[in-house]
Specification:
single chain, alpha+beta, Hypothetical protein af1432
C-alpha cells in the first residue's frame, strides 16, 4: 500500500517506512542468515550477499538519500555509487580485490543515514559503527580486508569539515568522486574529474509539491527552491508540511495528511 505522502520536510520519509534502526537490524540478520547458503567464503560472495539483501529491502527504497530535494532513495544511491566506484576503479587499473572492496564500501558508504538522517558528520560516524557491527561477525573475511573496508567506506567526503573522515588515499578519493557523480544523477549538478565533466540535465526523482497552495515542481526545469514560504516550529524541530504528488513514480491523490 503506497503511503499518502511524505510527513517531514527534512527527513523526506514515507509514512509506511520502518524506523532506521529496525531496517538496519533486518539487513544485518538477512546477511548473517544468508552467509552459509553453500557460497564460497570470500569477498566476492560477501559483495553478492550484501547487494542481494539491500535490493530486497523495500524500506531502504523509501528512505531518502539526502535532505536536499530532489532526491532518490538511499538504496538507489548506495547501488549507483558502488557501480560507479567499480567503473572508476577499472579505469584506474585496480586489481580484482580492490574492486571488490570498493564495491562493498560503496554499498555501505551512507548506511549511517539510517541512524543519523540529515546529520553530516554524525551519519559518517554512525556508518563506521554499523559497518564494524556487521563485519565483526563475518569472521570468514580476513582481518585485513575487514579493517580496510571499515576504513574506506566512511571516508567518502573531500571537505575538510569531515576531519579524520576526510578522503585522503587514492581509493578514498575515488569513492568520494563516485559518491559525487551518483548524487549528480538526481540533482542538476556538474561534477568535474580527471578526464572530463559529468553534467546532469535531468533528475531521476521529480517531485510535484503543493506548499501553501502553490504547486512547485522539483526535479524539472530550473526551479528548485520553495520561494518565500518559511518553515515553522513543529514538535522538536523546524518543519514544512507539504503534499508530494509524485512518490515512487506514481501520482498520489487526496489531501495532505
Amino acid at each position: 500500500m503506497m503511503a499518502e505522502g511524505v510527513v517531514n520536510w527534512f527527513r523526506k520519509r514515507r509514512e509506511d517506512t520502518e524506523d532506521g534502526e529496525k531496517i538496519w537490524e533486518t539487513i544485518k540478520n538477512n546477511i548473517l542468515g544468508r552467509q552459509h547458503e553453500g557460497r564460497y567464503h570470500d569477498l566476492s560472495s560477501f559483495a553478492e550477499i550484501l547487494s542481494e539483501v539491500l535490493e530486497e529491502c523495500d524500506d531502504l527504497k523509501r528512505i531518502p538519500s539526502d535532505t536536499r530535494l530532489p532526491i532518490c532513495s538511499l538504496y538507489h544511491h548506495l547501488k549507483s555509487t558502488a557501480g560507479i566506484a567499480v567503473c572508476l576503479g577499472i579505469d584506474r587499473g585496480y586489481d580484482e580485490s580492490m574492486l571488490l572492496k570498493l564495491r562493498i564500501a560503496g554499498l555501505l558508504h551512507d548506511i549511517g543515514k539510517l541512524r543519523a538522517p540529515g546529520k553530516g558528520l554524525e551519519h559518517v560516524r554512525e556508518g563506521e559503527r554499523m559497518i564494524d557491527e556487521l563485519l565483526s561477525v563475518i569472521d570468514w573475511i580476513s582481518k585485513e580486508d575487514r579493517r580496510y573496508i571499515r576504513r574506506l567506506a566512511p571516508r567518502h567526503h573531500g571537505a575538510s569539515y569531515y576531519g579524520d573522515y576526510r578522503a585522503e588515499r587514492d581509493e578514498e578519493r575515488l569513492l568520494s568522486l563516485a559518491d559525487s557523480i551518483s548524487s549528480a544523477s538526481d540533482r542538476r549538478y556538474e561534477v568535474s574529474f580527471d578526464d572530463g565533466v559529468v553534467k546532469s540535465k535531468d533528475k531521476i526523482f521529480p517531485h510535484l509539491l503543493t506548499i501553501g497552495g502553490r504547486k512547485i515542481v522539483l526535479g524539472r526545469c530550473e526551479e528548485r527552491g520553495v520561494g518565500e514560504i518559511e518553515p515553522f516550529k513543529f514538535g522538536q524541530g523546524w518543519s514544512m508540511p507539504f503534499y508530494d504528488e509524485i512518490v515512487d513514480g506514481g501520482e498520489i491523490k487526496g489531501d495532505y495528511k
